[in-house]
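ok trying again, last paste got cut off:
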Amino acid sequence: MGTRKLRSLELSFAPAITSTGIFRVAVSCCYLSVLHLVDCIAIESVEWLEYLGRYGSLGELVLKDCDGISQYDLLKFGPGWRKLQRFEFEINGTYWLSERPDPSYVVGYPSSYDICCDNLKDLRLAHIVTKPEIGLRFLLGKCKALETLYLEYVIGLNEDEVISLFQRCCNLKTISLRLMPLRCEDHWFRTALTDDSLEALALSCPMLQVVELTFTFCEPSYPTEIGFTQKGILTLIQSCPIRALVLNGASIFDDEGMKGLSSTQFLEKLDLVDCCSVSDAGMYLIAQAPCLSHLTLRKCSSVTDDGLAALARSQKLESLTVIGCRRISQEGVQGAAKSVCYSSETESHNSLKGMNVYRKIRQSP
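nice, full thing came through this time. structure:
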């Protein structure tokens, strides 16, 4: 590197960069505090990560689609976890087929995971498989200071561990839970988390302001595939000062739920995505929400121009975004808010749900 004072390095699709190059950066740049590696396919060993853990001062580490770095490799970061404040790990494609067991795992001897991450404030785990014998699960049992948490399509979540996490992280302000139904220990086919998790959030996280609940591959005709209930969601929203709410694929949430939202005192921004049970009646009700100023509707098939007319009459909205709602016309959104964005284009499932199942394998030039 040209300078030893480098503090931040972000590499995205750098197929010529190898582990050797990153190790040289780690050794040479003693002030490095931010490292992002995205789609760096030639990084196959993690001696650099071990070095940074022992001698570096990383406060932010983001790893996405680096095929040569596994979850248990991250254990080699060791004492570096104590300094880390932000961590992201993401795998795309058919990630549920690719994870290998941790060779260092021994049942009954969790010493490999006895790592401190008390200063971690921002955690995002996306598209990974987590099991007792696979490394990153230990994070959920160690964090105490989280303010932002994203758990996106993590296979193998244990609800008791998640509830314990919520109970420890009383400073949590933002949470995103993206879930899909899987076979659970009770033999039900549903999402891993239930109303028990929402209750723990409501009781333990009084500073919570931003919530996203996304459900994919949940069939509306089988509402029990979603572990949450409408009552559980409303209890959370009414217990915390929620200012921004995203409900995506929440077929269990209907106009009665919108009635509950209409009385919330803090809600300023609401995104309804693929919420097939919310109709025009829900629009009439949400127009009464005292602080709501920003509304997004995407693929809400039961809302029509009549529902938006109620919003137009209320004259409360600063902005309105409507995408892919087949019963809402461009004429219907006019006057519903000061700023309007409209598109009739249908979004792909991956776009709606924040997934990338069909990851393209890039070839180096």
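cool. The chain has a mean pLDDT of 90. Residues 8-99+112-263 form a domain with the Leucine-rich repeat, LRR (right-handed beta-alpha superhelix) fold (CATH 3.80.10.10).
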